[in-house]
């Protein structure tokens, strides 16, 4: 196979720096080979199917039962080592690699010579028997080998792999082929999502679908994507959260519901944020935020066990213990512990504004200082002083009412709400409430949010009249929670960037 010869000769390997120069040459050579195959009546793209009996992992795991037995496998040629009248091929499928041994004696001189004209990257089918080589490597001795797909572009140079993150994210198919750990990450992603569903389904939650297009973008403090329905001549928004629809389900009597799917927020892109992301929101009637804490820590530990085999995971060199119970700390106490500021003693907005000036909190505030309340400034102090210290799983409880418009107040303290956020490695993972079910208070909160929008806060909640109507029908006491699924997968796969756990992240065109 010509690309393996280039490993020795150096003329067929394409590194990332010279790809723009060399690829066109190699693509031309491979197209010439394809034309020759087609002229000979051997068109690889005419192959309709291949009945393979095993994958690479099956052969290695079940070697004792399969030794000397015939198998049929398929995959991509990753290397070809020619030793004259025989050769070794590394064949890669979804589970990994297995070695294939082929020789002219078993295949015939003409067929063997033909196979040697194929390229690294080609997809082939192999029929043969399982054996162990003299060096002890489990292999398949080929009796038949068929070219199923001709690769018209060479793979990146095998010794250095595919490292450039721009190429990896833009051409994820190459990333999956060249980097086994990437394939492992996305297999774990599937396991984690499946585990979340298993956990909730076993507790009688009902999975529902909520609209992605809506006339109102609400349920979160976020800037939406705007689109239009030509049929209705109507401005629509891509959903930023599923909250208000799921609460309508609670009003309707479903009692336990969740929706796991895509949300869209027209905001910044960084290692923790992608405009299109996966989130789960769930709501449970006759529960509160303490029930949500217990659900959160147990569900995350369950997903970790399913995906990694342990509730203890390594993240960026730090061991994170996800075992319940997680630490519980109020926001006021967190700021007092890490920022040495006692907001429990602050009585007025003016006092809080003075603290903000003294400690330079303006950068953390989302509006002008003169318009900020004590709650706004407490949250800013938390973000500045406390967040980065929350490495092990921690529930930060009791958020200010000013920044929690959908949340019930703390009994005896109207300035605070029964809300928590879960933090791991200094990053928010989950947000949960004892849900506000008083339609009169909710109306007042929406009206206040409308005033915030008039002051220029385009992330403030939009007014949803129908949601108020649903609360007037009556919603039982309810606990609700949202979890960033991509962020959870980051922690459980030791991924530095959210782009490492999204198959096709949002990228600016080149």
Structure description:
The protein has 510 residues and is α+β, with helices and mostly antiparallel strands. It folds into two domains: 2-161, OB fold (Dihydrolipoamide Acetyltransferase, E2P) (Beta Barrel), CATH 2.40.50.140; 181-326 and 392-500, BirA Bifunctional Protein, domain 2, CATH 3.30.930.10. The chain contains 17 helices and 20 strands. The chain has helices at residues 2-9, 19-39, 56-61, 63-66, 104-107, 109-115, 165-170, 172-178, 180-201, 243-251, 289-308, 331-339, 349-359, 374-385, 439-454, 465-473, 485-493, and strands at residues 70-82, 86-93, 96-103, 123-132, 138-149, 206-207, 213-214, 226-229, 234-238, 256-264, 276-285, 312-315, 318-321, 327-330, 394-397, 409-410, 413-417, 419-424, 427-434, 478-484. The strands form five sheets. The chain has an eight-stranded mixed beta sheet with strand order 6-10-11-20-19-18-15-14, with helices on both faces. A five-stranded mixed β-barrel has the order 1-2-3-5-4. Strands 7-9-8 form a three-stranded antiparallel beta sheet, with no helix packed on it. The protein starts with a helix and ends in a 17-residue tail after the last helix. The model is unreliable at 3-22 (pLDDT under 50).
């Amino acid at each position: 196979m010509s690309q393996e010869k280039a490993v020795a000769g150096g003329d067929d390997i394409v590194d990332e720096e010279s790809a723009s120069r060399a690829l066109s040459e190699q693509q031309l050579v491979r197209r010439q080979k394809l034309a020759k195959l087609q002229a000979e009546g051997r068109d690889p793209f005419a192959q309709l199917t291949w009945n393979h009996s095993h994958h690479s992992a099956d052969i290695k795991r079940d070697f004792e039962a399969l030794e000397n037995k015939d198998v049929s496998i398929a995959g991509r040629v990753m290397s070809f080592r020619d030793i004259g009248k025989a050769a070794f091929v590394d064949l890669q499928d979804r589970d990994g690699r297995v070695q294939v041994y082929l020789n002219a004696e078993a295949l015939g001189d003409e067929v063997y010579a033909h196979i040697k004209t194929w390229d690294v990257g080609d997809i082939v089918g192999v029929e043969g028997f399982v054996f162990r080589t003299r060096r002890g490597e489990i292999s398949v001795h080929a009796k038949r080998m068929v070219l199923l797909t001709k690769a018209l572009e060479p793979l990146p140079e095998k010794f250095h792999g595919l490292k450039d993150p721009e190429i990896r994210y833009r051409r994820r198919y190459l990333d999956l082929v060249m980097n086994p750990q990437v394939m492992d990450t996305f297999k774990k992603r599937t396991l984690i999502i499946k585990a979340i569903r298993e956990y909730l389904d076993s507790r009688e939650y009902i999975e529902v679908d909520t609209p992605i297009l809506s006339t109102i973008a609400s349920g979160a403090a976020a800037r939406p994507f705007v689109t239009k329905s030509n049929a209705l001549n109507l401005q629509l928004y891509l959903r930023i959260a599923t909250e208000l629809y799921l609460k309508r389900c609670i009003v309707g009597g479903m009692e336990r519901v969740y929706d796991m799917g895509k949300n869209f927020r027209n905001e910044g892109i960084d290692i923790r944020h992608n405009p299109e992301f996966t989130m789960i929101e769930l709501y449970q009637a006759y529960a509160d935020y303490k029930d949500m804490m217990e659900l959160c820590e147990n569900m995350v530990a369950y997903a970790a066990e399913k995906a990694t085999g342990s509730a203890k995971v390594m993240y960026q060199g730090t061991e994170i213990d996800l075992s319940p119970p997680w630490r519980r700390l109020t926001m006021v106490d967190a700021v007092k512990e890490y920022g040495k500021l006692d907001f429990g003693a602050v009585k007025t907005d003016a006092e809080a504004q003075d603290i903000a000036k003294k400690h330079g909190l303006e950068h953390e505030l989302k509006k002008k200082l003169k318009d900020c309340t004590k709650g706004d400034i407490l949250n800013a102090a938390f973000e500045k002083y406390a967040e980065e210290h929350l490495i092990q799983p921690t529930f930060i409880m009791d958020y200010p009412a000013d920044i929690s418009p959908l949340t019930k107040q703390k009994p005896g303290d109207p300035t605070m709400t029964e809300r928590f956020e879960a933090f791991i490695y200094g990053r928010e993972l989950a947000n949960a409430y004892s849900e506000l079910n008083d339609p009169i208070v909710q109306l007042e909160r929406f009206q206040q949010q409308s005033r915030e929008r008039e002051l220029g806060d385009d992330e403030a909640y939009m007014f949803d009249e129908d949601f108020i109507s649903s609360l007037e029908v009556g919603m039982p006491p309810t606990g609700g929670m949202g979890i960033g699924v991509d962020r959870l997968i980051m922690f459980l796969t030791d991924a530095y960037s959210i782009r490492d756990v999204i198959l096709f992240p949002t990228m600016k065109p080149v």
